[in-house]
Specification:
single chain, 643 residues, alpha/beta, eight-stranded parallel β-sheet, seven-stranded parallel β-sheet, 22 strands, binds adenosine-5'-triphosphate, DEAD/DEAH_box_helicase_dom
């Protein structure tokens, strides 16, 4: 009798990527409602409108403001938040739990109105003023912008709007937000119905302003949610969420001593039980919940379950505005889960790959040969923004152009708020043509006429890229985004775009030497002026000029992108350091580089950009040393390096 034969064990097939990607994710995210970006709903000025849920008054106001149709995100969100059922529109809903909402929609797609309209519509029915809507934003500038939108929509509705950003003194803000700070009022005492604020100042008021209470909140809006969730300042989110929920530690001392709560002290329904005497218990009592509905918005909403868990979302509903084409799902994984973000449809994206020293020239080329105006130019820091502005001003002064000069200003957190506001006003009035800025305004800022965005320093993560380029092509307009990518960054930048499924949309533009030749001499003059603004006798030349200099002089050749030279590099330059940093392409560049002759110090200096690997630096060093050994007349000095 033969033995039974069993088939060999086999490994089960690995689950497909799409199944693996969904593991551990919130089911609500997987079941997100996908909204087509081209869907629109007309606003009917008169009569009933069952589709949008907006009252006639609000619709008329929208039409006065020139808004005649709702954008995609609004067409999805307004019916959901306003709906026809009265529970959705009530100010308190302690029994029927309201669903929280998360929205991912492209930049400039109208997310602000998507939450401003329901807030105004629902809160307009209120009789007593309580703090019922809290809108948290990451920067002061955004707070001011959202306040303007809210004021425009809520005009004539009697709603009181406040903001807290730290721009005014704490005492002043307290007096604007709270009516009575003298006695302890368990229900709080608010002068405003809606508060727009930054998280830091919000925490200051929660901890330091008597009678500032979040118990009556009907809406908690977190705009630019992914950015704010990444901000752990004083654990702000946990503190805010705790303040919206009743907890035994909020019960006043008076409950223990049986002193009745003052009648004028109006408590939110979910907080009544903390004050035994005013809560009448019956056998059919249902547990009361806080009525606060959380609304989260971003163009780059996170799908990270850990971060979302911190929000303690109540039966959340996700809305994702993205195209329905096959592009919307790669490898069968929905875009939001793969963190592939939808871009505005009318945005054209380009990249220019160049050597670091060429970047200023490329920017001048874009401005002078591609008519880049009304542009935001992003740099990696405020320091490089202000240096680039100076270089630009020298360049504009040096270039003999028939056109009127281009006005450039820097915009960064270094400037006081009032100055920032003035600069922004001038930019909006097109008195300033180019705003060179740090990432301070890369998120949320809405300036309709921005037609170009230039990332002078390439962004290091895809979220930053999405928000920067999203400052143009807003509200259905067209726009162009340019990214200047240094050669050594190109691989990383392209892989970043590739993994976001976005590389094909970014076109590479090649710029040859002859494209920029007409700008070279003005560029050299501007570079020299940036380094030696006080010396009138400075001059620029090429390396071959050095050998024509009499021997015995100390020569240093300047090479690199002067905008990126740190203050210490420049200080070293003035002290006479010979070689400050190296580039992996130093030797190749040396043949083409321009040196700067400082007649005051009578020196030439060689300054080469850092940020390269030690291996490259060493190999460049040895090539340079052997070069100078062969041509000692070209370089007579000790070599000093910061590496
Ligand atoms: N229904 C509409 N009709 C016409 N314009 C609109 C409409 N909704 C919004 N807008 C305009 O579109 C512009 C962009 O809106 P908004 O600032 O809300 O975009 P966003 O989605 O919040 O962008 P970001 O993600 O960059 O913050 C604003 O100028 C706004 O006034």
């Amino acid at each position: 009798m033969s033995l039974p034969v069993f088939s060999l064990p086999t490994l089960p097939d690995a689950p497909p990527k799409s199944i693996l990607a969904l593991q551990g994710l919130d089911q609500a995210l997987v079941e997100a409602e996908v909204v087509n970006p081209s869907s629109r709903l007309p606003i009917i000025p008169e009569g009933d409108d069952v589709h949008t849920g907006l009252s006639e008054r609000t619709r008329k106001r929208l039409i006065e403001l020139g808004i005649t149709q709702l954008f995609a995100v609004q067409t999805a969100l307004l019916p959901f938040l306003l709906g026809s059922s009265t529970t959705r529109r009530s100010l308190y809903e302690p029994f029927d739990l309201l669903r929280d909402v998360c929205v991912s929609a492209p930049t400039g797609s109208g997310k602000t109105l998507a939450y401003v309209l329901p807030i105004v519509e629902i809160l307009s029915t209120r009789i007593v003023t309580h703090l019922r809507a809290l809108i948290v934003l990451p920067t002061r500038d955004l707070v001011m912008q959202v306040r303007e939108t809210l004021e425009a929509i809520a005009k004539g509705r009697g709603l009181k709007i406040g903001s807290a950003t730290g721009q005014h003194s704490f005492a002043h803000e307290q007096s604007q937000l709270v009516a009575d700070m003298s006695a302890k009022l368990s229900g709080g005492s608010s002068k405003v119905d809606i508060l727009i604020c930054t998280p830091g100042r919000l925490i200051d008021h929660l901890n330091g302003t008597p009678n500032f209470s979040l118990q009556h909140l009907r809406f908690l809006v977190i705009d630019e949610a992914d950015r704010l969730l990444a901000q752990s300042f004083q654990d702000w989110l946990a503190q805010v969420l705790a303040a919206t929920q009743p907890s035994p530690r909020m019960a006043p001392e008076t409950t223990k001593t049986k002193r009745p709560v003052s009648l004028c002290d109006s408590l939110a329904p979910a907080f009544l039980h903390l004050h035994g005497e005013v809560d009448l218990h019956t056998d059919i009592d249902e547990k009361k919940h806080a009525s606060c509905q959380k609304l989260l918005f971003s163009a780059t909403l996170t799908s990270d379950p850990g971060k979302l868990a911190a929000l303690d979302l109540r039966n959340p509903k996700y809305f994702v505005v993205q195209g329905l084409s096959e592009e919307s799902e790669i490898d069968g994984i929905p875009n939001i889960i793969a963190e592939r973000f939808t871009m505005p449809e009318a945005l054209k994206e380009h990249m220019i790959i160049c050597e670091a020293p060429q970047k200023p020239l490329m920017l001048f080329h874009l401005v002078h040969n591609h008519s880049v105006r009304n542009a935001l130019v992003f740099t990696k820091s405020s320091e490089s923004a202000s240096r680039l502005v100076r270089l630009f001003e020298f360049f504009e002064a040096a270039i003999s152009s028939s056109e009127s000069p281009i006005v450039v200003r820097s915009y960064s957190s270094d400037l006081p708020t009032n100055e920032r506001r003035t600069i922004l006003e001038k930019f909006k009035a097109q008195e300033v043509h180019l705003l060179i800025c740090s990432d301070l305004i890369s998120r949320g800022i809405d300036i309709s006429h921005v037609s170009h965005v230039v990332s002078y320093d390439a962004p290091v993560d895809i979220r930053k890229y999405v928000h920067r380029v999203g400052r143009t092509a807003r509200a259905g307009r067209t726009g162009d985004a340019w990214t200047l990518v240094e050669e050594q960054e190109a691989y990383y930048f392209k892989s970043m775009l590739r993994s976001a499924g976005h590389l094909e949309r970014v076109q590479r533009m090649r710029i040859s030497e002859k494209d920029t030749v007409s700008l070279l001499s003005a560029y050299e003059v501007s570079t020299r002026n940036l380094l030696f603004p006080r010396s009138a006798n400075d001059r620029c030349g090429t390396l071959s000029d050095i050998s024509a200099e009499p021997p015995g002089r100390v020569h240093t050749v300047v090479f690199g992108n002067p905008v990126n030279w740190s203050t210490s590099t420049l200080a070293g330059f003035c002290r006479g350091l010979t070689l400050i940093a190296m580039s992996r392409i130093a030797f190749a560049a040396l043949r083409r580089c321009h040196y700067i002759h400082n007649s005051h110090h009578n020196r030439f200096k060689l300054v080469i950009d850092g940020s390269h690997t030690l291996h490259h630096i060493r190999s460049s060093f040895s090539r340079l040393i052997s070069y100078f050994k062969r041509r000692p007349e070209n370089f007579i000095s000790s070599m000093t390096s910061s590496c």
